[in-house]
Specification:
By secondary structure, this protein is mainly α. The chain has a domain at 29-142. The protein has helices at residues 5-46, 64-72, 79-89, 95-102, 106-122, 136-154, 165-181, 186-199, 225-238, 246-259, 268-281, 285-299, 301-314, 321-333, 337-350, 354-376, and strands at 158-159, 352-353. The chain has a two-stranded parallel ribbon with strand order 1-2. The longest helix has 42 residues, at 5-46. It starts with a helix and ends with a helix.
């Protein structure tokens, strides 16, 4: 028997009610997603451009999928438009998945797709593979496409499985091809290094029952040492070149994680410094969130939490579950368990991946139990 049967029954009933409400909300959201995606497909199909541009048999790209990606990443389109369109038509991602990658509402993303397609039609932009000397002007878009495809494979935004191996493997394959095609572009090699260094930990990220395993808890003997060695070699070759970009910095951060023999040996001070350099190049909210996490590990959770609270105040990551989950973790480490439970609960409302939901639910249960225990403990 529990010490307080009435409280136990109340808590259990509340949790059951919350679970039922969540299931209903997920069903409603999925139905709306399918309807929106069908509407976008119909609109895109109605404005399909003519296939123009003549023969591309003498073009330098022999991989069919990569040729199409370079074709879609036309510089006349805005960057977000060209990347979103390529992800939708060639990357195997749905409109909701792309919207989550861009941190925008699905209707906003759907309109970007339609506008990009209309511009191709109205401006008469041909689906033509550019010659070798014009490939660099499309490289940024191509790399971003591959980066987002890999991210969706590494941590699926929806579904029950945490990892979508087919997407990760295809992104790595195409990144290798891009690097061989443009060997003097350090960011192409930097992206490949970043993918390899993260992918080396893929098998250890998932437990026997499909549960999410955090980096600090992973069995490092399961990491792919071959991929780590290849990724580190690329980083060591690239950084002295002096043309440092965001993918190279992220790869250097991943290399520091992979070099640590255990979680306690991680050089968080150096990682925080690299994130600060990355913020100067790319001050996006997600990069600043990662910087806050590194600072929390290097200098203490209170400092990191203050940085995350600043991001909350900005509102740009309001629908980003990792911000609220990160805050929850730091609040818990600071002993603020009731606030941690509220933050975990909020992250759960924003998370659609089954493995991540299971992890957050466990954390929420632990935080609530710790908060109840603290309240019940006699003073």
């Amino acid at each position: 028997m529990p010490d307080n049967p009435g409280a136990w029954i109340t808590t259990t009933a509340r949790n059951r009610a919350i679970d039922r409400l969540r299931r209903r909300r997920r069903l409603r959201d999925k139905t709306e997603e399918l309807a929106r995606d069908a509407a976008v497909e119909a609109e895109l199909a109605s404005i399909e451009p003519d296939e123009t541009g003549g023969s591309d048999a003498d073009m330098p790209i022999t991989d069919d999928r990569l040729r199409l990606i370079f074709t879609c990443c036309h510089p006349a389109l805005p960057m977000d438009g060209r990347v979103a369109l390529t992800l939708r038509t060639l990357g195997g991602l749905t409109t909701p998945e792309i919207a989550r990658a861009f941190l925008v509402p699905e209707p906003t993303l759907a309109q970007r797709l339609v506008r990009a397609k209309r511009k191709i039609r109205d401006a008469g932009i041909p689906y033509r593979v550019p010659p070798l000397d014009l490939l660099p002007e499309r490289l940024d878009g191509v790399l971003k496409v591959l980066y987002l495809v890999y991210n969706e494979g590494y941590a699926a935004s929806s579904g029950d499985a945490l990892v979508r191996r087919e997407l990760s493997n295809e992104a790595i394959r195409l990144a290798r091809t891009v690097m061989s095609l443009l060997p003097d572009e350090p960011e192409a090699a930097g992206l490949l290094a970043l993918m390899l260094l993260h992918d080396a930990r893929r098998e250890a990220r998932v437990g026997p029952t499909g549960d999410l395993v955090l980096l600090e808890d992973q069995d490092r003997s399961r990491w792919d040492q071959g991929r780590i060695a290849e990724g580190r070699a690329l980083v060591e070759r690239l950084l002295p070149m002096g043309r440092v970009g965001p993918y190279q910095l992220q790869a250097a951060i991943a290399a520091l994680h992979d070099e640590a023999i255990d979680a306690a040996a991680t050089d968080w001070t150096q990682i925080a410094a690299l994130y600060l350099a990355l913020v100067r190049i790319d001050p996006s909210p997600v990069v600043r969130l990662n910087h806050a996490v590194a600072v929390a590990m290097a200098d203490g959770p209170a400092i990191g939490l203050a940085m995350m609270d600043g991001l909350v105040d900005e509102g740009s990551l309001a629908s980003y579950p990792y911000l609220h989950a990160g805050r929850a973790d730091l609040l818990r480490r600071l002993g603020r368990r009731s606030e941690a439970a509220a933050a975990y609960r909020h992250a759960l409302t924003l998370t659609t991946n089954g493995a991540e939901r299971s992890y957050l639910e466990r954390r929420l249960d632990e935080a609530e139990a710790e908060a109840d225990e603290r309240v019940a403990r006699p003073t």
